[in-house]
Amino acid sequence: MSGPAPRLPAFRWVAASALALPLAGCVAPRGATPPAPPAASAPLPPRIEAQLAGLPDSPPVWDTRPARPDGIRVTASTYVVRPGDSLGRIAQTTGAGIDAIAAANGITEPNRIQPGQRLRIPGGRYHPIAAGDSGIAIARAYGIAWDRIVAANGLSDPYILRAGRRLLIPEPAGTPGQNLEERAAAFRIDIDSILTGGQPAIAENQVPARPVDNARQPLPPTAAVAEPREFSGRFAWPIDGRVVRRFGPGQGLGEKNNGIDLAVAGGSAIRAAADGVVAYVGTGIPSYGGLILIRHGDGWITAYAQAAELSVTRGQAVKRGQTIGRAGTGDARVHFEIRNKRAPVDPLKLLPARS
Known about the structure:
The protein has about 350 residues and is α+β, with helices and mostly antiparallel strands. The chain is about 15% helix and about 25% strand. Mean pLDDT is about 85; it is low at about 1-55.
């Protein structure tokens, strides 16, 4: 690296080649310092270790606020709706969760239940959501993939959890005989789980916080962030460079590229491809290195990976063309993705043509 970075809040320099960092999910009491992850099977080069050791860090809420696996068991049953009942009251009576009850009975409008209606109450373990809990932290505490919890509870965009509600936790589907700590230690996250489980829970009547203007005004890590409502309509190239790997299947079995890889000049500016709000900044997914996720409204998301400098913060509003980070030094590469409602789309079909 050419020199130290300004120490702005949530502003971090990262090593673009640090791909072997593990993400472990050990269970810790709420409020306690999360345990250190186990050593990587393939140690990083000493130069990279030294760079990472001296960097300012802004850990995500699922690391600073680990959830406790203190769910309660609820027996499957049938409930007959009484006059004056609401899904919230039924959930309190049965011990189940509002979302799980609605999903199990195909209820899309929670206020439209009728006296005499028979509702199926799904049995299982229910986790009580506390303020600041994130989906990733809850999933990691139980060692259950977050997408399975999303499906079991019928969660949908914008995936903001509400404190005081309960989440149905599916039964483990991992290696037989694994205990809770072993499943949690094997837990991994990906871009999709950050997008659907990265927001901290807020009170039932609370609204998400408005985006901030710059990195010097960071939002509290426990604040859920409001997203853009409408997409500005077009994307711009995120960096000047040559496409060296395209979207789609690779040569290896099961290999797939969810975006494009660009060879760029060392230290090149990485720019926001469209107006939006930063949803994530960090190094929590080893294979992506320094990663920035931006929401653009209408379900559009962009991802910028292998960054060596991250110069924005979660919850920051950005404009198309604004510098959000920089590539590494030397012969650097940057990975770029566009997703629509979380599904990867070929960026070359949406970016402006160029010679």
